[in-house]
Specification:
Blueprint: E1 16-18, E2 43-45, E3 58-64, E4 73-78, E5 83-87, E6 97-98, E7 111-113, E8 122-124, E9 126-127, E10 134-136, E11 144-150, E12 153-157, E13 163-167, E14 171-174, H1 190-195, E15 251-253
Antiparallel strand pairs: 1-2, 3-4, 3-6, 4-5, 7-14, 8-11, 8-14, 9-10, 11-12, 12-13, 13-15
Amino acid sequence: MTQKPDKNSRPPKSLTVSLKKTGGRNNTGKMTVRTRGGGKRKIWRKVNFGQEKMGVKGEVTRIDYDPNRTAYLALVDYEDETKGYVLAPQGISIGDELVIDDEAPVKEGNRMRLTNIPVGTQIHNISLNPNGEGKMVRAAGSSAVILAQEGKHTHLKMPSKEVRKVNNKCFASIGELSNPEHKYENIGKAGRNRNKGRRPVVRGKAKNAVDHPHGGGEGGSTIGLKHPKTPTGKPAKGVKTRKRKHTDKYIIRRRNSKK
């Protein structure tokens, strides 16, 4: 089990940057994301998701809490006298040695190419392009499993149960991510969500007709539509929104498949 972090410990100044809030608005001031705004000020931690320290050994010196993500961070001191943050896997502890290499030892926290990872291994922080940064499986307690090695691709079972192919030259980190208890977190009161920058959500049915397609009517009347809609009038349920059709060829089994 991963050591619990001290929430009062301050991150190294060289690994932080100020975080500018948008309030859900784009560069023209138009609201593009609803129910977002406010919240406590947060310091952004610079995390190494890629292979910036290829072949350089490092030692874990601290486990840190990060208010910007659900998993914990591991502060690593590298041999070249630099520091860096990486996502902390479950079971890592202070004093453990980490390394990023093409054929690193299969050990929690080490990062290596998919083609060199044994079948059945749990992995996280998976890149989609060789030598690119990790993009998939970065939430607390999540992990993907290697099912097979086939030609130039590795078959992965994602946390959503989707099975997909990824180029086996891509990198991934070994292990399941820390803080699996996050899914049992009890918000407890509305103020906690406001501190996270989440504003209240109001049912469309409770609004006026001018504000929402579901609005208007008397008392508990229905929405008056065959299918529910978003505030902008687009279908809200049962409509596919996937746009990256050029990657469909890499999906072996979809997450909603009953097979």
